[in-house]
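pinging the channel bc i need a second pair of eyes. not urgent but kinda urgent?? the chain im working w is below, pasted from the shared doc
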Amino acid sequence: MLVKFFYDRRSIFDKFGVTDDAVFAIVAPSDIDPAIAQKLEEAFAIAAKSPEYLEMLDKINMIPVHYNSSQFSAFLKDHWKSINKHLKSTGVIKEAATKPE
């Protein structure tokens, strides 16, 4: 999901070198049973379209973006460097447990 603000995103990047994107994810262990993973993925896809969920996101100025597991894996690989940089700079991690593929 991307945070929706009421200003020009480009000017914030130009001024501060950051964007206002926020990613929220639900993850599972890498060894999860594929059948369970599929059921969860289907349930979250349905929930992401529910009017109640979309209304709640709108109330907190969030834009819904839903990725299935393969799409989210690709997103993480594409953004690994910046995600790693932010996690380290905020003290969440000292070093990444894995390196990008």
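so The two ends are 24 Å apart (CA to CA). and The CA atoms of residues 87 and 93 lie 6 Å apart. — does that match what u expected or am i reading it wrong
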